[in-house]
Specification:
With 306 residues, this protein is mostly helical. It has 8 helices and 3 strands, in the order H-H-H-H-H-H-H-E-E-H-E. It has 2 domains: 198 residues, Alpha-lytic protease prodomain-like; 88 residues, Cation efflux protein, cytoplasmic domain (Alpha-Beta Plaits, 2-Layer Sandwich), CATH 3.30.70.
């Protein structure tokens, strides 16, 4: 399974959503629990989200062309944005259904069968979410991470519903069913807002994480004993792709070949540290004042060369 593509994991999520919808819908019809209805609605959102994820990952995998010279990797953010929005829609739907049942409580039926179906669906969602999280980190896919987090919210939804049904059976307090559903809806809202925030950050060309930027700086600083400097280091993240640019200042007496060879060495080292990175260097003579005129691009002016 380690050789699977991101799209393959999205297809797995789609199949899982279809199975869990069937299980949870059956559980709702057997029990009449509004919490289980909310759970089925959440899985319905998973199905739509998985379909969008397959489309986005297929588009993101396309190579760069004349009209999109930096590739299509940002297509993943469309998927995560849609998924974040769908999570919020699901939360609102759950809250509305729960409020209606809170005002008009109804007894629950055939709890054993309903809980059994729900627990099977929960275990399935939890296992697939774990696989998607691992794959999302390994493949640097925000789409897979978003899908995994969505499935995890579904797991929490199911856990809350099961707890509510058990407590209703123990206490006889029918209001617990919709109250737990409302609490689950609030938790889902938080997950959706967090996902939308991450999507917005990516669309605004957020810089690479601090630890990855520091890895780049360490590589550049390791070459400073050769008499070089660097500045105007800029990074951005676009889906699974990383982009790195910086200015490399070398002694003026160096030949073009010398400077080019050093740039190649540094670029190879960065790509080795950050697989898949696209690195662009700008070579300048160290002694030329014009080489230092663009330091307004720098994030800091602490003498580090950045």
């Amino acid at each position: 399974m380690n050789q699977w593509s991101a799209r393959s994991y999205a297809v797995l999520s789609l199949v899982t959503a279809i199975i869990t919808i069937a299980l949870k819908t059956g559980a709702y019809f057997f029990t009449g629990s509004i919490g289980l209805l909310a759970d089925a609605i959440e899985s319905g959102v998973n199905l739509v989200a998985a379909g969008v994820a397959i489309w986005a990952l297929s588009l993101a995998a396309k190579p760069a062309d004349a009209s999109h010279s930096f590739g299509y990797s940002k297509a993943e953010y469309f998927s995560s944005a849609v998924e974040g929005g769908l999570i919020l829609v699901a939360a609102i739907s759950i809250a509305l259904a729960a409020w209606g049942r809170l005002l008009h409580p109804e007894p629950l039926m055939q709890l054993g069968l309903g809980l059994g179906l729900t627990l099977v669906a929960t275990a399935l969602n939890g296992g697939v979410a774990f696989l998607l999280l691992q794959a999302g980190r390994r493949l640097r896919s925000i789409t897979l991470r978003a899908d995994a987090h969505h499935l995890l919210t579904d797991v929490w939804t199911s856990g809350g519903v099961v707890l509510a049904i058990v407590l209703v059976q123990i206490t006889g307090w029918l209001a617990l069913d919709p109250l737990i559903a409302l609490g689950v809806a609030a938790n889902i809202v938080w997950a959706g807002l967090r996902l939308l925030r991450e999507t917005g950050s990516g669309l605004l060309d957020a810089s690479l994480p601090a630890e990855e930027q520091q890895a780049i700086v360490n590589i550049l600083q390791s070459h400073q004993p050769q008499g070089i400097q660097f500045h105007a280091l800029r990074t951005r993240l676009a889906g699974a792709r990383r982009f790195v640019t910086f200015h490399l200042l070398v002694p003026g007496e160096w030949t073009v070949q010398d400077g080019h060879q050093l740039c190649e060495e540094i670029e190879i080292a960065i790509v080795k540290a950050l697989p898949g990175a696209h690195v662009v260097t700008h070579l300048e003579p160290l002694e030329d004042p014009a080489s230092w005129a663009d330091q307004e691009l720098d994030r800091t002016d602490d003498g580090s060369g950045m």
